[in-house]
Amino acid sequence: MFLRNAWYVAAWENELDKNLYPTTILGEKIVLYRKADGSPVALEDACPHRKLPLSMGRLKGDQVECGYHGLTFDCSGKCTRAPGSTRIPQGAQVRSYPLAERYGLIWIWMGNADQANPDTIFKVEEWDNPAWGINRGDSMAIACNYLYMTDNLLDPSHVAWVHQSSFGNAACEDEPLQTTVHDAGVVVSRWMHNVEVAPFYAKFVKFSGNCDRKQHYEVHFPAHAIIKAVFTPAGTGTDHGPLHNDVFLMNSYNFMTPVDESNTRYYWFQLRNFAPDDEEVSRQFAESVRFAFSEDRAILTAVNAGMADKRTPNIDLASDSGPLRFRRVLDKLIAQEQAAGAAPLAVQAAGQTKVDA
């Protein structure tokens, strides 16, 4: 089950050119390409004649010609040519999808086209801040349902076991979590005081000795996350007032696009509050982050397979509080959307309710 009135990432901008680019999103076959003026197009990837994928055809200017009998479709999905016919056949139409370009990504709206508003795309506050460095990110296919990924991104504790050589260490095992539920999504966070700096971050922090560390894991509906890592000298960590001058900040943006019920395409990039023009730092970030996310992929692929073939009941832990709350609210949004005929997605956060995990 998917929320359809929402923006999802369809591709990186540099993956899309004037060639046909087939993909699958929410179980729907889609073909993307760019027009001569560079603007992106997304059409249903199935000719209405015998459902041959249009991606097996060819571009003719800004239009797509089917590779079977030459039916040709414009950017709106309207058939403009039907060779051998005196008129365009009734029903010769394919669906077109609204697109937007932002943060180096192509975003696609999978619901009612008249409700597509690019202003509701997930906000990246630091994107244009010249003081922040960025590694442009990457993507990977993961053979799991996207909700196992949102579970993972609302679970700060998993880094103690999955990412022992990178994001985690023993300090991440037992510190209690705080869960915040709001209209846009769920936040799970905690401070850990006077602990060792985890391996990935130790190369980049400006101070020596132990730290106060904050993990802020936030996932917005339907499946967009920001993970904030805060490292500051021990004794200086606080949510009230300014942080220490040597504070390390890394904001990791993570976008899950369901391919179908058992596969997800994962897109990400990170921003940091230092070394804005240092390509070597960006390279190290990109390399280390992809390695850590490959560790997640191995775990989540096995979880998806294990849950699909479970012979005994599974249990929940205290650390599942945030993920379970996220799933419950998302289920309600999907049910409301279906009852209303794909009603618009509420994206603005309202009042917040804090719940101890």
What shape does the CA trace take?
elongated
Secondary structure: number of strands: 18
Order of strands side by side in the largest beta sheet? 11-17-16-15-14-13-12-18
Mean pLDDT: 93
Count of separate structural domains: 2
What would you give as the CATH superfamily of the largest domain? Naphthalene 1,2-dioxygenase Alpha Subunit, Chain A, domain 1
Q: Which CATH architecture of the largest domain?
A: Alpha-Beta Complex
> Helix count?
5
Main attributes?
alpha+beta, Rieske Iron-sulfur Protein, Naphthalene 1,2-dioxygenase Alpha Subunit, Chain A, domain 1, 8-stranded antiparallel sheet, 4-stranded antiparallel sheet, disordered C terminus
Can you describe this structure?
- By secondary structure, the chain is α+β, with helices and mostly antiparallel strands.
- It folds into 2 domains: 7-115, Rieske Iron-sulfur Protein (3-layer Sandwich), CATH 2.102.10.10; 123-356, Naphthalene 1,2-dioxygenase Alpha Subunit, Chain A, domain 1 (Alpha-Beta Complex).
- Helices cover 18% and strands 32% of the residues.
- It is built from 5 helices and 18 strands.
- It has helices at residues 146-152, 159-162, 199-202, 279-308, 321-339; strands at residues 7-12, 21-25, 28-34, 40-44, 58-60, 63-65, 72-73, 79-81, 99-102, 105-109, 133-142, 178-182, 185-195, 211-220, 224-233, 248-260, 263-272, 353-356.
- The strands form 4 sheets. It has an 8-stranded antiparallel sheet. Strands 5-6-7-8 form a 4-stranded antiparallel sheet, with no helix packed on it.
- Strand 12 (178-182) and strand 13 (185-195) form a beta hairpin.
- Helix 1 packs antiparallel against helix 5.
- It is elongated and about 80 Å long.
